[in-house]
């Protein structure tokens, strides 16, 4: 049976060696073999399981839930693949509708056609995004309100100092946003952000921190504020905060 070294797997898939090590440490995906020198060797079965994990990740499942699903004795890989396909087709269909709306809006902006108000919003159906709704209900608005209340009760000089520190951290994260969200530099900066959020009376759990990152990218109020420090920063922070939460869970 041919095996593949961890670096080869990382290069093949496009994820970091560190991520694969984390999957092993949390017993989500452990290699079939280890050499005497401690090198991880992955089999074809390991690669198939990794593919399955990444399908679940593409659909927004957290790592702990994926571990629970794929290690259940009743797990049926083929059935899961068929479900993945159905969900991805639905996702693609919604994206195709949104793209069509963008194309029509471009032509509308050029004066080539007229759009009704209804046509301007075709393809947007947030009722089919349970992950965003769950994040908002469990972690988003309530967490932000509590955090803002804590800041609002600080003396003015402490508010100013914290604001300066927030800006400094956002600027630091913005400098590495063109790289990988799981790089050491990105994770160190995100760790500073997590520590700052938890430096006062309100505590963000790792789960709440991850949900907050989702809101940065999914709620235009947050996106506008975060992206002032660099285009695409909100989406980068979402990904980096998810990595941080998963790796420190």
From TrEMBL:
Q: What GO terms are given for molecular function?
A: DNA binding; DNA-binding transcription factor activity
Annotated HTH merR-type domain ranges read 1-72
Keywords in alphabetical order, please.
Answer: Activator, DNA-binding, Transcription, Transcription regulation
List, alphabetically, the Pfam families matched.
MerR_1 (PF13411), TipAS (PF07739)
Keyword hit for Transcription regulation: yes
Q: What is this protein called?
A: MerR family transcriptional regulator
- Per the UniProt record, the source organism is Paenibacillus soyae
């Amino acid at each position: 049976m041919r095996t593949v070294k961890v670096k080869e797997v990382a290069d093949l898939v496009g994820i970091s060696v560190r991520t694969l090590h984390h999957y092993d440490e949390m017993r989500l995906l452990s290699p079939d073999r280890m050499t005497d020198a401690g090198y991880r060797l992955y089999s074809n079965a390991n690669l198939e399981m990794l593919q399955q994990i990444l399908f679940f990740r593409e659909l927004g499942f957290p790592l702990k839930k994926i571990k629970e699903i794929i290690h259940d004795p009743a797990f049926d890989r083929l059935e899961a693949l068929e479900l993945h396909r159905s969900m991805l087709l639905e996702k693609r269909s919604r994206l195709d509708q949104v793209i069509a709306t963008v194309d029509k809006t471009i032509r509308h902006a050029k004066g080539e056609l007229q759009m009704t108000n209804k046509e301007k919003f075709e393809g947007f159906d947030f009722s089919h995004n349970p992950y965003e709704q769950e994040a908002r209900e469990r972690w988003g608005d309530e967490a932000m309100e509590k955090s803002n209340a804590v800041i609002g009760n600080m003396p003015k000089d402490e508010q100013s100092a914290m604001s300066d520190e927030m800006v400094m951290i956002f600027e630091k994260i913005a400098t590495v946003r063109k790289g990988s969200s799981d790089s050491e530099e990105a994770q160190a900066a995100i760790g500073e952000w997590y520590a700052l959020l938890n430096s006062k009376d309100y505590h963000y759990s790792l789960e709440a921190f991850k949900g907050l990152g989702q809101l940065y990218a999914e709620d235009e109020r947050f996106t506008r504020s975060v992206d002032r420090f660099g285009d695409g920063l909100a989406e980068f922070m979402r990904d980096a905060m998810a990595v941080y939460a998963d790796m420190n869970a």
